[in-house]
């Protein structure tokens, strides 16, 4: 069931979340819906998006707008239209959370496959740039525009075989922090969020022998990201690290 009106601080606000078919993105989408937001969700799989939509309906009584897109293959054709399309349909965009990411293969830098490199750059870095381009105008115009980009501790702690993933996330961080500086005089708040180690598909891909039950769950992380989306949030240009408890 949805919360009472006084407990829905994002009532009538529109939120765009990428990577929303599972893991942190799906958990965050449900949390934002519980807080009253109207969701626009992007992920590669239609089935996964529909599962998230079912969970959103269960807590809010209304569905989300589902956009099955591959942020690498479909980016040039469709991502640039996201901002104008949302404005045409809803008349506003208040929140952007770029959570989608790909790990690809853990491999020595000298052995990175060009196709893997292109895909990882496309999703982790280029898609972030395109989302900023298309969402900047409506977010600046919003009463309390909020943007959050999910990052990784691997940026600060480089490790063998993680070069491709870490480099693309580092590039994303620099891009986002530059944007934050550029909009510092506006009402828009832009932040990075590092969830640390969470039981996600990406983590399982990197550490297949790990017991996910011993890790922080996406539902535990989602409220911390949602807090960065609140109208009263004042943090800006920061790299927020999730701390359990």
UniProtKB/TrEMBL annotation:
Pfam families recorded: adh_short
Coiled-coil annotated residue ranges, if any: none
Domain of life: Bacteria
Keyword hit for NAD: no
Alphabetical list of SUPFAM superfamilies matching this protein: NAD(P)-binding Rossmann-fold domains
Keyword line: Oxidoreductase
Stored Gene3D superfamilies: NAD(P)-binding Rossmann-like Domain (3.40.50.720)
Family per similarity comment: Belongs to the short-chain dehydrogenases/reductases (SDR) family.
Protein name: SDR family NAD(P)-dependent oxidoreductase
């Amino acid at each position: 069931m949805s919360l009472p009106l006084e407990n829905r601080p994002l009532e009538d606000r529109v939120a765009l979340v990428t990577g929303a078919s599972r893991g942190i993105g799906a958990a965050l989408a449900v949390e934002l819906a519980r807080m009253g937001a109207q969701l626009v969700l992007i992920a590669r799989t239609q089935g996964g998006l529909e599962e998230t939509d079912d969970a959103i309906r269960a807590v809010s009584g209304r569905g989300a707008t589902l956009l099955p897109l591959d942020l690498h293959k479909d980016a040039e054709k469709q991502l640039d239209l996201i901002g104008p399309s949302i404005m045409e349909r809803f008349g506003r965009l208040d929140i952007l959370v770029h959570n989608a990411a790909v790990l690809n293969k853990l491999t020595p830098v000298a052995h990175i496959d060009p196709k893997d490199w292109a895909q990882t750059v496309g999703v982790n870095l280029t898609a972030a740039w395109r989302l900023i381009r298309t969402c900047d105008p409506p977010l600046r115009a919003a009463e309390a525009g909020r943007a959050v980009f999910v990052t990784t501790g691997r940026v600060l702690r480089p490790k063998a075989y993680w070069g491709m993933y870490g480099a693309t996330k580092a590039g994303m961080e620099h891009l986002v922090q530059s944007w934050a500086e550029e909009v510092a005089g506006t009402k828009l708040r832009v932040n990075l969020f590092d969830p640390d180690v969470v039981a996600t598909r990406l983590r399982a891909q990197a550490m297949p022998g790990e017991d996910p039950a011993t890790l922080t769950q996406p539902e535990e992380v989602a409220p911390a990201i949602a807090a960065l989306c609140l109208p009263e949030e004042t943090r800006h240009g920061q790299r927020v690290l999730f701390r359990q408890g």
